[in-house]
Amino acid sequence: MSVRAFRAGRSAVGDPFVDSLFGMTEGEPSLFERMMSGEIPAEFVHHDERTIAIRDINPQAPVHVLVVPRKRYRNAAELAGDDPELLAELFRVAANIAESEGIAESGYRLLFNTNEDAGQTVFHVHLHVLGGRQLGALAQQV
Ligand code: 5GP
Fold first, then answer.
1. pLDDT digit string (tens) for 111-131?
2. Is the CB of 121 under 6 A from ligand 1?
3. Dihedral sign, CA of 9, 3, 115, 141?
4. What does the record give as the active site (predicted)?
5. Which residues touch 55 (CB under 8 Å, ≥6 apart)?
6. Between the CA of residue 11 and those of 8, 18, 27, 67, what are the distances in Å?
7. 75 lines ligand 1 (CB under 6 A)
8. Which residue's alpha carbon is at the smallest distance from atom 24 of ligand 1?
9. Which domains does the chain have, with CATH numbers?
10. Is 97's pLDDT higher than 80?
11. Which of 18-22, 84-88, 104-108 is predicted with the least confidence, judged by mean pLDDT?
12. Which of 112, 126, 134, 140 could form a disulfide with 76 if both were Cys (CB 3.0 to 4.6 A apart)?
């Protein structure tokens, strides 16, 4: 079920139950913060003072890694406005991961889903690193 459909079945954006599932509630730790604290298990492929990278639980390609700043920003636009150097760091970490995963030469895709129409489900900004096969069209017609 899509987030939109799921939300449509509930009262509206802002429903505390839905918000808690998707990590949108102010003060509540996000999914990635729960991983950083060890509360939720994750396969880390990188961690440093400012960023982590984990394998996606539902990979869309042979390599599917999420690069996440430790500090929480809602999406890429918020991060770009508040800390462009940290945004650049996500791209540097992604390039290193592409090297270590062996997809730097064959090619890979970096993307941020931003808000509902893009399918963002976790509102703690994260850069998807996808590769290891021909990735095909960027966006599907529906
Ligand atoms: P978004 O849809 O917000 O751009 O990306 C969120 C990503 O987080 C999705 O690709 C989804 O598969 C991944 N994800 C959701 N829950 C978990 C989890 O518990 N563990 C891991 N490793 N990834 C998750």
1. 999 999 999 999 999 999 999
2. yes
3. negative
4. 126 (tele-amp-histidine intermediate)
5. 42, 43, 45, 64, 65, 66
6. 7, 9, 22, 32
7. no
8. 57
9. 3-131 (3.30.428.10)
10. yes
11. 18-22
12. 112
